[in-house]
Amino acid sequence: MEGNGGMQEQMERPEMLTGGEQAIIQNTWTKVYQNKDAAGVAVLMRLFTSFPSSKQFFSQFRDTEDPEELKSSVQLKKHALRVMSALNTLVENVNDEEKTAAVLKVVAKSHAIKHSVEPRYFKLLTGVILEVLVEAFPETFGVEAQGAWSKLMEVVHWQVMQVYSEIGWTSANSATE
After folding, report:
1. Angle at CA 147, nearest 5°, toward 126 and 132?
2. Which Pfam families does this entry report, sorted A to Z (predicted)?
3. Quick one: DSSP state of residue 170?
4. How far apart are CA 93 and CA 87, in angstroms?
5. Is residue 173 a contact partner of residue 116, using CB atoms and an 8 Å limit?
6. Domain 16-172 belongs to what architecture?
7. Euclidean distance between CA atoms 27 and 145, whole angstroms
8. Which among 167, 97, 157 is positioned nearest to 128, based on CA atoms?
9. Confidence of residue 15 (pLDDT cuts 50, 70, 90)
10. Which of these, 69, 80, 65, 77, lies nearest to 129 by C-alpha position?
């Protein structure tokens, strides 16, 4: 997977979400989105702590070493809110495959073309999102919810990979490899 900037030759399309899973995702998201600022910051802080190389794409705070300083960064908070807003759009439209694909296409193209973000960081981010949501909202994210959210994150990752493939992403696109 790493040999070509995180791209796999052929990624199998994930199983689509059932109506029940869509409802679970929307119901669990309500509590998360009420706490979107804190949840978004927690997601990015976990990403940067667990995968420090992910900070390289953020010129505003890539050299910030102090976790408390990073956590209070206005730029980090703004990006965290953008991440949560994009997730909110996905959740609100989880039953509309075309809308979710369109949203993810915009996000993926921007990250690939404008920011040269390797696609593997999306996979890392989807895992971090799940970890943080389960830890921060244990009463909301039981086994059933975790399963539904895992499927959603697989769909997100697959859609992003499709966009990277469409634009012809190769490891040569990446300035970090």
Report:
1. 40
2. Globin
3. -
4. 10
5. yes
6. Orthogonal Bundle (1.10)
7. 9
8. 157
9. confident
10. 80
Which of 106, 125, 129, 99 lies closest to 28, judged by CA?
129
Q: What pLDDT digit, counting tens, does each position of 77-130 carry?
A: 999 999 999 999 999 999 999 999 999 999 999 999 999 999 999 999 999 999
pTM above 0.85, yes or no: yes
Question: Structure tokens of 128?
Answer: 């971090």
The amino acid at residue 110 is S
pLDDT tier at 12, thresholds 50, 70, 90: confident
Cα angle at 153 between 130 and 76, to 5 degrees? 60
**What's the pLDDT score for residue 94?**
95
Q: Which of 32, 33, 56 is nearest to 121 (CA)?
A: 56
Q: Which residues of 104-115 are buried (b: 16+ CB within 10 A; e: fewer)?
A: bbebbeebbeee
Structure tokens at 132: 């943080």
Query: Distance (Å, rounded) from C-alpha 135 to C-alpha 127?
Result: 12
Q: Give the Cα separation of 56 and 52 in Å (integer).
A: 8
Pull the structure tokens for residue 21: 């899973």
Tell the residue number behind the tokens 């086994």, with chain if given: 143
| DSSP labels, 100-112 | HHHHHHHHHHIII
